[in-house]
Amino acid sequence: MPQEDIPTLYDWLGGIEALNLLTTRFYEHVKRDSLLAPVFAHMGSDHPAHVAAFLAEVLGGPADYSAQHGGHPHMIQQHLNRHLDQEQRRQWVSLLLRTADELNMPEDPEFRSALVGYLEWGSRLAVINSQPGASVDANAPMPKWGWGEVKGPYTG
């Protein structure tokens, strides 16, 4: 299949509508989760839409998050001094994947592998950036996740 015929992960999962549904339902579950609820206790009502826009951009959709919020540096800023731990990170990933299952998001192994890969990578960055002494690189590029590989400056 020619490269231009391969859908983005964003298109494969159903676009922004699917991501908004995912993040809205996910954060409803978070509010009832004893481990995660305290972390997001001060979350605004617009938080799910912000996360959906961020995921959309990372997964190959429009760059609305960068245009409206400042890209990856802004997301990193949101995690500074939050003191997240691995138990919270694992619960966040697990709950998001359970929510994806609940909403019947694509289950094919290629898509799920790519999604899990990003969630593991991104949530580990969140933990790192939440620790004392972490700082924001104002030039940090937005990660771009694809089918089985990350594209861009994070590839080493």
Write a structural description:
The chain has 156 residues and is mostly helical. It is 56% helix and 3% strand. A two-stranded antiparallel ribbon has the order 1-2. Helix 6 (86-102) packs antiparallel against helix 7. The mean pLDDT is 90.
TL;DR?
This protein is mostly helical and 156 residues long.
What is the mean predicted local confidence, pLDDT?
90
**Large-scale geometry:** globular
Low-confidence runs: none
Profile the largest sheet: 2 strands, antiparallel
CATH architecture field of the domain at 8-113:
Orthogonal Bundle
Overall CATH class of the domain at 8-113: Mainly Alpha
Radius of gyration from the CA trace?
15 Å
CATH superfamily of the domain at 8-113: Globins
Query: Which structural class fits the helix and strand makeup?
Result: mainly alpha
Identify the strand order in the major beta sheet. 1-2
Annotation, overall tally of beta strands:
2
How many individual helices? Answer: 7
- Strand fraction equals under 5%
| Residue share in helix | 55-70%
